[in-house]
Each structure stands twice: as structure tokens, then as C-alpha cells.
Amino acid sequence: MENEKRFLCEAIELAHANVEKGGRPFGAVVVKDGEVIATGVNEILSTNDPTAHAELTAIRAASQKLGSPDLQGCAVYASGHPCPMCMAAMRLAGVGEVAYAYSNDDGTPFGLSTAAIYADLAKPFAEQSMKIRYVPVRLETGLDLYADWKRRQQA
Ligand SMILES: [Zn+2]
């Protein structure tokens, strides 16, 4: 698809520009109704924000532009294979389509693959490298967090 190639090239060009500024080689664009509505690059080094991946900076900008956290009808074109954090964030935001130009295999020789994190996250919690525990603590006030929220939603 010609548009798809154009949007992916734009993401790669953004990534190149980010590299020239000392950043990591990742760029992304958000497209709605055939138009680029937002762009992003990896800003983790310049902002000391470990979540400032290109896809996340792009969907944050798209949500600000649309005035909504709901990105249904949007597609994201990323220079590289999105990491699990970005993939989940795009899913949660309602993004319906994702395309990327450089695969994890393309990134492996450069230390730019997140395949190992995908593999770790696919395991049961108890087998993952990060300790994850369910500790069902509740406040002594008896006020249930979720029930309180639901009640306020209905009010
Ligand atoms: Zn990411």
C-alpha cells in the first residue's frame, strides 16, 4: 500500500532526525482518516522518562490534538517493532492498526530488540524475571476502591 509506505518512511525520517540530535533511532506517526495527526520520537534520553518511547510520545500528542484519550480509528506507523509497553498502550487507547518497518530481528544485532521482554511477559507471573505479587490489602475504613468509583460513576 502506497500510503503505508509513505507513513513508515516518515517514521524512519523522524527516527533519523532524532539520532542526529543524539536520541535513539525510533520515530512514529499517528494517522487518522488518511492524515498524519501527530508524530513522536524516542525522548527517553533527553527527558529521563523511561516511558518516552516514540509510539507513546506520538499517541500522547494525538490524544492532546483530538482532546480525547480514545484513539479509535487511528493507525500507528512506527520505525521499529513496538515494545510490549507501547503495544499495550496503543491497544488500551483503541488504536486499531499498527505497522512497523524494522523488526525485532532487524534490531537484534544492535541491541534494539524487545523480543526477550515479549517472551518473559508471556510466562506466568511466578516465572517472570520481575517479582510480581498479588497482595489483596483493603483499607480498614471499609470503603472499597472500585465500588466507590462505580457508585460515583452512576451518581
Ligand atoms: Zn515502546
The CATH homologous superfamily corresponds to: Cytidine Deaminase, domain 2
CATH topology, anyone? Cytidine Deaminase, domain 2
Total number of distinct structural domains = 1
The CATH architecture is 3-Layer(aba) Sandwich
Widest β-sheet, arrangement of strands:
2-1-3-4
Helical content band: 40-55%
Detail the topology: elements first, then pairings.
Elements: H1 2-20, E1 27-32, E2 35-41, H2 44-47, H3 54-66, E3 74-80, H4 84-93, E4 97-102, H5 104-107, H6 115-121, H7 145-154
Parallel strand pairs: 3-4
Antiparallel strand pairs: 1-2, 1-3
Bound molecules: zinc ion (ZN).
Structure described in brief:
One of its GO terms (molecular function) is zinc ion binding. The chain is α+β, with helices and mostly antiparallel strands.
Summarize the structure in words.
- The chain is α+β, with helices and mostly antiparallel strands and 155 residues long.
- It has one domain: Cytidine Deaminase, domain 2, CATH 3.40.140.10.
- Helices cover 43% and strands 17% of the residues.
- The longest helix is centred in the first third of the chain and has 19 residues.
- The mean pLDDT is 97.
- The site of zinc ion has 6 residues, from helix 4.
